[in-house]
Fold these 2 entries.
Entry 1:
Amino acid sequence: MILIRSIRPNRRPASTVLLRPHILYYYSSSAASSAAAVEAERTIRLGPRNDWTRGEIKSIYDSPLLDLLFHGAQVHRHAQNFREVQQCTLLSIKTGGCSEDCSYCPQSSRYDTGLKAQKLMNKDAVLQAAEKAKEAGSTRFCMGAAWRDTIGRKTNFSQILEYVKEIRGMGMEVCCTLGMIEKQQALALKEAGLTAYNHNLDTSREYYPNIITTRTYDDRLETLKHVREAGINVCSGGIIGLGEAEEDRVSLLHTLATLPSHPESVPINALLAVKGTPLEDQKPVEIWEMIRMIATARIAMPKAMVRLSAGRVRFSVPEQALCFLAGANSIFTGDKLLTTPNNDFDADQQMFKLLGLLPKAPSFSEDVVKDFEAESCAEVASSSG
Ligand code: SF4
């Protein structure tokens, strides 16, 4: 399919679609449009929607790869500042010894991965790490604790509220991932200044019991509801390479894209198989699988920050460039992602320079998200053009 910009708007053919008030595009009638092309055009014209059918998401996902990549990039350029990439730093503030049985996770106490369980890090150590991350250009600091939930952890939870307040006071966005939380805890985190709460759905509802048996998919969705109702931004995505079928990847994206509001951040992780976990022999995810996930997520959730997360360390700069082109606009920086290795900081800075990427500034406006929801992509495009 060929996308052509007309220079004679008064001779518009029947197949013309108007994407921006002042720019006219039409599609060549000699080639059939892929689902990615059709849905990307609709997303650009009408803005985000939550009424996706699974069939629609599947047909975007199944589009010819380069066509999907191209249309992911089109939506990305209309809905986001495509040169900006958010840099987040993730710190494990309480490592290992987790009671859950997530098959991919070296922090579960059920698997012998050689990881030593540690207590909650003290305030000085956490704040020092946040300071270092800020100096290195990170605008969001995420704290992860290996817990099933925060119930019965009153003292630790109060300490974390303190960390959130302090880090927010440094001018950084703050995110936490502490397992399942109740509504009251979500409200307390909001009060402390938390920007976002991460709670991944991991995979499809159908495949979930193959990966985790100690909690349910609905438990996950319940926490996301508490986070959303407290007015905290939702960060939720998944992991590919767990042995799931492509249908499961479609199902995961469909669940995320049909939540009452799209998550503000959607991390797409590629499994880094860790020795000692039940998934230690999984074969590595290929870059083409990541591109397919990222571009589909971008078309279905145009306003979300799509985060190229775990597994990035295995991808070359040209491979990462394709991910940014497809619609990824957020990464984790720092030596480690909780307990697994991450990309070298200097190499990331060189990559930014080489690709002409710009670090995204922090955003503290609580109204931004609501405004974005109300505004169509086309309006964003015309005001930025
Ligand atoms: S992913 Fe989280 S909940 Fe699951 S075992 Fe690891 S630390 Fe525990």
Entry 2:
Amino acid sequence: MNFSFSSKVKDLQRCLQVFMDEHIYPNEQRYHDEIERNRWSPPAVIEELKPKARAAGLWNLFLPDREHGAGLTNLEYAPLAEIMGRSFISPEVFNCSAPDTGNMEVLARYGTGEQKERWLKPLLAGEIRSCFSMTEPGVASSDATNIEASIVRQGDEYVINGRKWWSSGAGDPRCKVAIFMGRTHTGRTDTGRTDKDRTDADRIDPEKTGRSAAPHQQQSMVLVPMDSAGLRIERMLTVFGYDHAPHGHGEITFENVRVPVSNMLLGEGRGFEIAQGRLGPGRIHHCMRCIGVAERALETMCKRVQARVAFGKPLAEQGTLRADIARSRMEIEQARLLTLKAAYMMDTVGNKEARAEIAMIKVVALPAVATNRSSDPDLVSITSLVSCLPSTSLSKRYFQRISETSEGYSSLRITALTRSAGESCALNCDSADPMAERTTRMTPANIVRECVTVTWFSTTGAFLTVVTGGF
Ligand SMILES: Cc1cc2nc3c(=O)[nH]c(=O)nc-3n(C[C@H](O)[C@H](O)[C@H](O)COP(=O)(O)OP(=O)(O)OC[C@H]3O[C@@H](n4cnc5c(N)ncnc54)[C@H](O)[C@@H]3O)c2cc1C
């Protein structure tokens, strides 16, 4: 394996870094302020920056398809995704944000000419956004063969019924289309026997069971315009209290929604085939963006522990902090190398052959960064925990949250030892980095609660990451 980057990639890295310095980092606070003023409206700053990114040639870099995108391999795109991941606002500015990236790849790879014209074109131009509706509240969706929503053909139309949740991006008014996963083959036989009643031989022999099919051939993906009659967004979900506006994660009811049969992607029963194609690149993108935010978190913390003095010496010289920083450095390096290896494998031997490595980067690399391997949860929470998160906006939100917790946690542990219980402690973040600019006031009760949250999230977050797949 040779991980040295070509001159094309090095040039793009340089351009991206310059753009990040000139346009992205200085506008993070403005983005945050605009969202605070109007939560479910796209911030003007993003729309202002998009034409600049496009003019700089930093647009649709994720798309390996030369006709529509930059034509970069996974290994070439990975270091660029890492740079974009350093800021929660940048992926969208470069039209490289999830779930649009995965959806655009699906359309580019499997869409008909008509589907590309109607949906891929405006997505590539950054004029609209999209969501992916697979997960359902009613079934364990980590096993997508469980998906129950139905797609039933009636004449020239499909009639769609089901309830979905965690449809990321559905809260954005620019979200105009959903890729919806549901059953075209119900798994129910003419005799009324259900899937459970059927033998394994029945399941894998569609001839015997009429409309039923092997479990991995029962699901299909269909394009559903968000303004379809019968489509209702019931609520936006929160992740640890954050709604991630204006992106959001929607719970959506589909009640007798009708779409033309031409909206079917690839063909009935081919949903898993599409999902497989979508998963690999999306996971590389997520992992590299997470590594980007982990790097930034580590840099932020390194600056901070050098600048602050406690008990007569910089925090950086206190206790085990240096070892913890080294451990985080190693975990990030390991995660990056493993992700680059997965990207290299995808490029050289294909997604199928690389499936073990694609799984590893979530099952080993990201949880290694995400979970607390060190003895000091404050350090891990500031550098590493954020990196398990599946979306960059989430990372930002969670970074803020964890920054509060962990920056406070170091000081507070000492303080808590020297102060009597019940006394409150003031924590001040005065770093010049806007990501570290938080002031919070915590009571010992809050500290305990936060520690529990961090520990719980360390395991649950890794767990979620494993099952979240490429969204
Ligand atoms: C922030 C966020 C964004 C998301 N965005 C999208 C989106 O855009 N579109 C979409 O369709 N979905 C989205 N999801 C949903 C996500 O894909 C699902 O949560 C995931 O697929 C798991 O499904 P489930 O929630 O039904 O969990 P379940 O399947 O009910 O699983 C419950 C628990 O069991 C564990 N588990 C499952 N199988 C095993 C096993 N074999 N061994 C051990 N443990 C197991 C899981 O890890 C999980 O902790 C998002 C989720 C989050 C948190």
